[in-house]
Amino acid sequence: MWNLKQELEKAQSLSKRIELHTASGVQVWHVWNQAAGKPLVLLHGGSGSWNHWVCNVLPLSQQRAVWALDTPGLGDSELPLKALDADDLAEPLEEGLQHLFGSEALDVVGFSFGGLMAGFAAAQWPTRFKRLVLVGVPGLGLSNNILNMRGFRDDMSAEERLGVHKNNLLAIMLHNESLVTEDLLTMQAQNVSRDRLRRRRIARSDALLHQQTKWTCEVHGIWGALDALYKGKMHLLPERLAGCNLQSFQTIANAGHWVQYEQPEAFNQALQNALPV
Question: What does the alpha-carbon distance between residue 152 and residue 154 come to, in Å, rounded to a whole number?
């Protein structure tokens, strides 16, 4: 039986942790199968860390060197000075990629907030991106559905706080309630506690509609068919990405926003279809 805690420990034990010192602060990267070459860069979602990809890094690393960043201001990476939102992180992302890969054009997969950040970077440094895969990204002028999100109070007990995390995971991230285990709630609580980026003003905007016209790379989309951000609007997404070189758009059944966790095998296959070695 699949066990999140064990999978996290296994993934961590097989990874190399790299602390990268850049002009904007220390970035923490995790790499699997570095010797394989053929780098595949994974950028996680908001209030997350590399572990948004816990179900994916080992299968994907069978063919690629998988590089997962803790986004600056999230996870173990430092918050760049004055950074508030995704647009402020494009330059720190490019700094990290320059340190690690020089001028090499890369395959980059951006989930949600990570895809938003990648979109700004691809507009400013288009030759950096060989192929860009967007996974459930906001910023397309459609993710304005009302979500039943709850906040925290200082006087909440530990049990009450876990209840908020469960509510929010089901409100935005996951469709299948059975996936919200004690281990997942613990992981979520740890990720949220390290989130130092609180504005998220761009997510509900149409910023990527304007950025995409500057992209020169091949673009692919992978979405969970039950993504709460796009309920009733999924059919509009390919049209919203008409301003870029969209090569494929795949939806995965029985999956919400966090599609790579909810349906990992289907997601991994979809990604391999989009990014053949």
Answer: 7
The pLDDT-based confidence of 46 (bands split at 50, 70, 90) is very high
Task: Give the contacts of 72 (CB within 8 A, at least 6 positions apart).
Answer: 24, 25, 27, 78, 79, 80, 83, 89, 92, 93
Q: Are strands 25-32 and 16-22 parallel, antiparallel or unpaired?
A: antiparallel
- The residue whose two tokens read 């997404």 is 237
pLDDT in tens, 221-272: 999 999 999 999 999 999 999 999 999 999 999 999 999 999 999 999 999 9
**Cα 243 to chain center, whole Å?**
22
Domains of the chain: 4-274 (3.40.50.1820)
Torsion (CA) 81, 117, 42, 264 in degrees, nearest 10: 130
What pLDDT does residue 90 have?
98
110 SS3 class: strand
d(CA 121, CA 94) in angstroms, rounded, equals 7
**257: helix, coil or strand?**
coil
User: Residue 2, SS3?
Assistant: coil
Evaluate if pTM is beyond 0.85.
Answer: yes
Max CA-CA distance within the chain? 51
Please give the Cα distance from 157 to 1 (Å, whole number): 31
| Residue type, position 200, single letter | R
CB atoms within 10 A of CB 86: 31
